[in-house]
């Protein structure tokens, strides 16, 4: 019997392509998709998929809200985070939120299918390098995600913006990317500076570049 897959992503073309790839597998069947947090949390309990894929960024919303909600109320439905955001930055936060796996969107269909099968077998799926970092306590390895790190004060949205700053995007470009206003991005940027104790935009840009590894 095929396992039922539900996709949450705000890019319809990507959803269609992913659905086609997953449906080629003998053991999977895509039964629907949502573009928003509210729609996903309304439909998933009704249609009861075996597994869900979720992107982190959903038209100005945080996909990890879905992860946390399913962990709380539907523990039997494993979630694979499938995102464009670097695994090295977001994988641990996603796993902490309740995801059972993390795969970047540019990975091959084979990897995505392998990840789905892994989390359906009640195991965690991340790439080999990230798995090694988890095993060696990622927080102590790079100085980022330990409990005393200022980064632990950032929300997922703030981490997302920090990453995009580190990749050289302007405020306007970030706003377009995450579907919010430039003013909202500016507010997040100021909050990031305060939480990380950074004095000006130059310090923020340097920190962001180090954060993204660029």
Report on the structure:
With 214 residues, the chain is of the alpha/beta class. It has two domains: 3-132, Response regulator (Rossmann fold); 150-212, Arc Repressor Mutant, subunit A (Orthogonal Bundle). It is built from eleven helices and seven strands. It has a five-stranded parallel β-sheet, sandwiched between helices. Strands 4-5 form a two-stranded antiparallel sheet. Strand 1 (3-8), helix 1 (12-23) and strand 2 (28-34) form a beta-alpha-beta unit. The longest helix has 14 residues, at 182-195. It is globular. It starts with a strand and ends with a helix. Mean pLDDT is 87; it is low at 138-145.
Keywords, separated by commas or semicolons:
single chain, 214 residues, alpha/beta, Rossmann fold, Arc Repressor Mutant, subunit A, 2 domains, five-stranded parallel sheet, two-stranded antiparallel sheet, 11 helices, 7 strands
